[in-house]
Specification:
The protein is mostly helical. The protein is built from 8 helices and 3 strands. The chain has 2 domains: 145 residues, Arc Repressor Mutant, subunit A (Orthogonal Bundle), CATH 1.10.10; 64 residues. A 3-stranded antiparallel β-sheet has the order 1-3-2, covered by helices on one side. Helix 7 packs antiparallel against helix 8.
Length: 222
């Protein structure tokens, strides 16, 4: 029990806005709701530490060391909230929510077509938005976790790849026009210019892919 309180408190310390009791209580409710839900582990510690769920526990997250070294008045408050949650003394204001996300990141795929039931405003203007009708099962690996948050086809890397592929395809078509310029005389004069422009599009797309990969690595994403 003491381990559960400690791990839950550190999760709240890392996930909630510092000093925001309402935020910490809401996140504690989400964790307890997951414990009670068959899709998730039947243990507070296992729910908190489940890979790719609470980013503050990710090994590449700068918040991890902060929660491991947690101390002070706010951490003591988080421990009190954790103890109350585990003892069943916490009122669930989230209406049995099992998911939430912060508005400073893009809306995850699982939130599409779902309506939030609760929110907590932060001092910086952002919010934590809570949902109680999500049936998404826990991801089985890092790739699936990332896809739930950032669908692969919508990532900058894939968008850059699509632009590059389009550019190559159009450049090839322009080259074909140039090869049959006698049959399509009105288009022949533009063939070389179009080919150049489309190749430039392909190079731009490749550049976007490379930049996106470097930027994602810096952000701790695959």
């Amino acid at each position: 029990m003491s381990d559960d309180i400690d791990i839950l408190a550190r999760t709240l310390f890392g996930e909630a806005e510092s000093g925001n009791t309402q935020d910490a209580q809401a996140i504690a409710s989400v964790i307890m709701n997951r414990v009670a839900y068959p899709n998730w582990p039947y243990s507070v510690s296992k729910v908190c530490l489940q890979p790719w769920q609470f980013s503050c526990w990710n090994h590449n997250d700068p918040n991890r060391q902060r929660i491991l070294d947690a101390s002070g008045a706010w951490f003591e408050k988080c421990k009190k909230i954790a103890a109350d949650a585990i003892a069943g003394r916490l009122v669930d204001m989230t209406h049995k929510s099992t998911h939430y996300y912060a508005t400073y990141v893009p809306a995850p795929k699982w939130s599409k077509a779902h309506r939030p039931v609760y929110e907590v405003r932060h001092r910086n203007g952002h919010r934590h938005i809570f949902f109680n009708d999500i049936d998404t099962r826990p991801p089985i690996d890092a790739a699936e976790a990332l896809d739930q948050a950032r669908p692969l086809l919508k990532t900058r890397t894939m968008q850059g790849g699509a632009a590059a592929a389009s550019g190559v395809g159009l450049a090839t078509a322009a080259e074909a026009v140039g090869e049959v310029r006698d049959q399509v005389a009105p288009l022949a004069m533009y063939a070389e210019t179009l080919q150049f422009l489309f190749l430039a599009l392909a190079l731009l797309g490749i550049g976007l892919m490379i930049w996106a990969r470097i930027d994602d690595r810096k952000s701790g994403l695959r």
